[in-house]
Amino acid sequence: MAKSALDPHDGQKPSIVWSYFVLTRLHKFPAGSNLAFWPGAWGITLSAFRVGMTIEQALIQLGMYLLGCTLCHSAGCIWNDICDREFDRKVAVSLHGAVFLLAVLVALWMVTLSFAGHNGIKVGLFGFLSLVPWYPLMKRWTYWPQAFLGLAMTWALPTSWASINGFTDVSIPTVLLAGGISWTIYYDTIYACQDRGDDIQAGVKSTAVLFGSHMRSILCAFASGFVMALVYTGVATGASTAYFIVTVLMTALELAWQMYILDFTNEAQCWKVFKVSNM
Q: How far from each other are the two terminal CA atoms of the chain, in whole angstroms?
């Protein structure tokens, strides 16, 4: 199982400032934050064409969602570390310090959410309160923590959609949300393959453990689900031919290539494919 960010990595005592910075995962930015941001960007981009947003308005929205998703991701990582303290005993920061930093980040996130309008605030708060606190516990309760993670990481999509469009034409964000969950299960299962052996020994549940020898065929199904969601979105929004070539076809070819070449027992290759698949 991968070590928590609360653990010192090099055997030397890090500075307290650096320890707290690492706790937020901001030293790896945009990794992680981008996975939460992209679904929000999908919602904003789709909505921009529907409501006639100017480029400036769309860019401001994208900037706010990038900030909000970064804060939310950092808060989620800290909460995950706090919940994992029984697994990871060596810590570089105090529990009280971690909780205080978590509270600060959540407060800042709520400030950014306040700009999302009445509908966006309701959807965003519902997702945050019902998903983020429970994800770290899912790997103890179910073999499908990646599905729960998919909901959490894709929730910026319904938030951004509701913020701009209200609750109209909800089939578009709903189907794309399902596609985003499929995409998350796909890439996070590949990521989890790096620790599959350790997870089995530690009794940690994941789709990487569950899928076993059927890994490739099951991940192909989830990749296909993501591509089908992209197709539906394009048809429902009357997208141009360029969308179907660049977004749908190129995505399908990339995922197919990954499934063809990937050795799930090769940790370095799994890490490389994981990075490519969530760019």
A: 24
Task: Read off the pLDDT of residues 73-105 as tens digits, 9 standing for 90 and up.
Answer: 999 999 988 887 554 454 567 888 899 999 999
Q: Which H, E and C letters describe the chain, residue by residue?
A: CCCCCCCCCCCCCCCHHHHHHHHCCHHHCCCCHHHHHHHHHHHHHHHHHHHCCCHHHHHHHHHHHHHHHHHHHHHHHHHHHHHCCCCCCCCCCCHHHHHHHHHHHHHHHHHHHHHHHHHHHHHHHHHHHHHCCCHHHHHHHCCCHHHHHHHHHHCHHHHHHHHHHCCCCCHHHHHHHHHHHHHHHHHHHHHHHHHHHHHHHHCCCCHHHHHHHHHHHHHHHHHHHHHHHHHHHHHHCCCCHHHHHHHHHHHHHHHHHHHHHCCCCCHHHHHHHHHHHCC
Whether residue 263 contacts residue 269, with contact meaning beta carbons closer than 8 Å, is answered with yes
Q: With pLDDT > 90 as the criterion, what percentage of the chain qualifies?
A: 70
Asked whether the whole model's pTM tops 0.70, one would answer: yes
Q: Tell me: domain 169-279, CATH 1.20.120, correct?
A: yes
Domain spans of the chain? Answer: 1-168, 169-279
Q: Other CB atoms closer than 10 Å to residue 214's CB: what's the count?
A: 10
Same fold, 1-168 and 169-279: no
Q: Which fold has domain 1-168?
A: Tetracycline Repressor; domain 2 (1.10.357)
What pLDDT digit, counting tens, does each position of 209-232 carry?
999 999 999 999 999 999 999 999
Encode 163-180: b = buried (16+ Cβ within 10 Å), e = exposed.
bbbeeeeeebbebbbbbb
